[in-house]
Amino acid sequence: MPHSPTTPALTPRTPAHHRARPAHWAATATVIAAVIAGAGLLQPEPAGGATPAPGTRNGPQAAAAPDPRATAPDAQAVTYPLDCKGVPRTVTDTAHGDLDGDGRPETVAAVRCQAGSGTPPHALYVLIQDPAPGSAPRVVATLLDTDRRRTAIDLTVRDGAVTARLLGYSSPDVPRSSPDLNQLAKWRWTTGKFRQELTDSSAGSV
Fold it and tell me: Is the dihedral angle over the CA atoms 65, 67, 73, 74 positive or is it negative?
């Protein structure tokens, strides 16, 4: 399953020097953005009637029955595409669930650099576990990149969707201990890509 974990995800960034207007952030809205997770979690079914491998389903299909033998990928057993400049990476949160309807659970991992002080930004990765014996879990999609400078909390997978609350800063003048941006984000696999929804965006100390 080809992938490109470094593909930027989420919506276009707000420049660090720009302070968001309260009227913009206070409005409750739903913003839909296509998030192309590398080549994607799923690929088109092969021609000739061949049976697609797990995790390769695409298009509107009935969800497969859960595979009782399948286990969610181990987030601690993955090498993440996160450059921490020699500092260790740390997994701060995980959530598990079937995101593509193939009957096998995926893992979503919140990962950041393990800095001695401050609050390093998070990246969110989708992991799969290939069914072949001895295979290792691997990253197939990046939902949130550290370039977005967000802290991800309340990570969940429910009903085939990933949700997290993203905390951030509207300008460099905002104290790092008091994020003033609070966004509820949701990602769902739809027609060959993850689509992200941003709702309940607001300003004010969190």
Answer: positive
* CB hemisphere CA count around 125 (13 angstroms): 27
| pTM of the predicted protein model | 0.70
Strand partners, 112: 90
Query: What's 133-181 look like in SS3?
Result: CCCCCEEEEEEECHHHCCEEEEEEEECCEEEEEEEECCCCCCCCCCCCE
- What is the Cα 73 distance to its own chain's centre? 15
Of 77, 76, 71, give the one whose Cα is nearest residue 54.
71
Cα–Cα distance, 68 to 70 (Å, whole number): 6
Torsion angle of C-alpha atoms 26, 187, 105, 36, degrees rounded to 10 = -150
Phi, psi (deg, nearest 5) at residue 97: 170, 165
**204 and 168 Cβ atoms separated by less than 8 Å:** no
For the stretch 45-78, pLDDT in tens is 333 333 233 344 444 455 678 776 788 999 999 9
Which residues, at least 6 apart from 65, have a Cβ–Cβ distance to it below 8 Å? 103
pLDDT value, residue 166: 96
Handedness of CA 109, 112, 113, 116 (dihedral sign): negative
